[in-house]
Amino acid sequence: GAGVSQSPSNKVTEKGKDVELRCDPISGHTALYWYRQSLGQGLEFLIYFQGNSAPDKSGLPSDRFSAERTGGSVSTLTIQRTQQEDSAVYLCASKQRGGAIQETQYFGPGTRLLVL
Amino acid sequence: GENVEQHPSTLSVQEGDSAVIKCTYSDSASNYFPWYKQELGKGPQLIIDIRSNVGEKKDQRIAVTLNKTAKHFSLHITETQPEDSAVYFCAASINNDMRFGAGTRLTVKP
Fold this sequence. Notes:
heterodimer; A: mainly beta; six-stranded mixed β-sheet; four-stranded antiparallel β-sheet; 10 strands; B: mainly beta; about 60% strand
């Protein structure tokens, strides 16, 4: 079946502009994660959604970052007033369910953001 | 919170040799340990995982071992091939919280 999809695949923007990144999780997956991956680095957790529960925003680096998930499916990560240090690959992952039962996270291809 | 350390950061082997990547974790409550392979320009893809009630798991040329007492786990790739070249990430998970190692860039030279 279809995997996690993200759009756009690449985004170039000017410093100070706002950007929106989109994630379509695997159908039926109730949990959705956003991560940031800087060049040559590991994955930095940003935010986690599980069903209708309040999201875990503990990884968001500043109040310029926000995310929402509409109807328990598609998610949008918004970065306001972008800075050059925001340049990175933004990865989305989904898994079948949250809670104590461990399920694998499936990743999308990422959005490569470049802030000039 | 959980802290995952991964070594080495880069690894170069000859085709046909074995490769071993090691990770340690800090929280003894972690109970799920996946390994991901990330090729250039792509998202991480799960290659193997192990749960805390299992000490070893093997899938063809790939194996993972887990030592809960020492809080470390390792990825073993045998008979390496050039297409194994990629960045490999380990992770440790407690419920919904998954923390990743910094990654190992594996290069398999033909």
